[in-house]
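Input sequence (483 aa), recorded before submission:
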Amino acid sequence: MDVHVRLDGKRDLSGQIYRQLRAAIHDGLLRPGDPLPPTRELSRRLAVARNTVGVAYERLVAEGYADSRIGSGTRVRATGLPARGATTDTGTTGPGLRPRALWAGLSPWASPETTGATTAAHDFRVGLPDARLFPYDAWRPLIAREMRLSATGGVGYGDPAGHAGLRSALARHLGLSRGVRTRPDDVLVTTGTQQALDLIGRVLLEPGDRVAVEEPGYPPARLPFLAQGADVTGVPVDAEGLLVDAIPPDTRAVYVTPAHQFPLGMPMSLRRRTALLRWARRHGAAVIEDDYDSEFRFGGRPVETLQSLDRDGHVIYVGSFSKVMLPSLRVGYLVAPATLRTALRTAKYTADWHTAVPTQAALARFVDDGLLARHIRRMQHTYAARHRSVTGLLTDHFADRTELVPSAAGLHVTAFTRGRLAEPGAVADLAGRARASGVAVYTLAEVAANRSARAGFVFGYGSISAPDIEPGLFRVFGPPQDL
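Predicted structure, C-alpha cell format:
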C-alpha cells in the first residue's frame, strides 16, 4: 500500500517524513505489522536522498514505532496507543463536531447488536430469510455476466428510477403475484425499503408534518420520517388492523403493513382497508403500504393490496427483495402515483444517483427467467412447515403461558405471554436467560416502536432450521415444571 508523504520546502526533510509516518501510525492508517515503503522506493518518489528516508526510519525504530530487520524491511510495531479520534465509552470523540441531538435517539436501531450476525444455535430473529437455501448456483452466472459487461464498458451511470429491464420485470411480477396495477414507468428501484421511505418523506413532508404509524409497529419505518423533522404519531391496532377513526385529522401520511401487520401478524380487514382509503381521499393524505413479506402465505385467501383498491392515487406501494431473496442485496422498490414520479426520481438522484446497475440487471433476468417464482414456491413449502412447527409447539406445549396471535403469512409469529410472564420484566428476564443459553430471540417490546407494548415474544422462523425449533422454544420457556 502506498503511503502519502508530502514534503514542504527543503528544510528538515527527514523530520517531515518522520512526523507524517508517525501521524499515520497514531491515526491507525498504518497498523501493527504493516510494512513501510522500502527506503529506495520512497526516496525515489519523494526525489530525496535514500539516507534522508533512512534517518526518518531510524527515528521511528528508536522511538518504538517500528521494527527493522534485515531482509524483512521496516514494519510498524504495536504501540498500545489509542488511534486518534477513537471513541470513548460514551461514544464521543472529545471536542469537535457533534451531530444533531435527534440522532442520539435514533442510533440504537443501527447498532451492531441490532443489525449484526449471530452465533446463536437457535435463531428466532425477525425478518430474516434462510440464506442457506438461496439458489446461488443460478444467481452467480447472472451477476457474473453483468459484471463482465460493466468491465467492458457496457454499463455507465444508470437511470435514477432504475434499470429499465428490472422495472418492467417488477411491473409484471407485482401485477401477477399481488394484483398491483402498475406500469414500468410507475416503478422506482431503491436501495431497500428504508430508502424508499426516506425518498417518500423527502418528496411529501415538510418539517413538522404528521405521519401516522401503527402501534405497535415496525420501529425502523419511523426513522426516516423522524430524521426529516416529521411528527410521528402511533395509532392503535386491533384484530382488524389500524383503527382508522383514531388517525389524527392533520396527518399528512399513514404508514401501514396491511397484508401482515408488524409485529402482531393479522391482516387488515377489507372493511378497514376501504375505510382507510376513504379517509385518505377525504383528508388528501398519502397511504404508504409496506408489503414486506406477503409472498409467503400458509392459508386463507391472499389479501388484496391497498394499491389495487385505490382509485384516487393516494397509495404508495413499497416492497423489497430482502425477505424473498437476501437482505444483503439491498434492492427495493416503490410504486407511486404518476403525480409523484418526477419528484421521486429527482430525490433518488439526489440521494445516491442510482442503485447498483449490475445487481439490478441480474435481478431482472432472475425475475424474467422464472427463477424468482421458482424460489418463492420452494421457500413457501419450507416456511409453511416451520410456521406449523412454531405455532403447533406454542399451542401444544406452552398454551398455559402464551396466547398465540393468529397469523397465516410471513416469516414470524407473535405470542403474548400469560400468568406471571405477563409482566414485561419477567419476559425480559426470560429472554436474557434464553440468549445466555444460545437462543437469539426478541421480546415484543424490543421489536415494537412502543416499548410499553403488551408482554410477549416475536418468533422469527425464516433463518432457523426446522430441527432447531423445538429445542429452541424449550430453551426459551423451559420444561413445564419451571413455570
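Checked by second reader. The mean pLDDT is 90.
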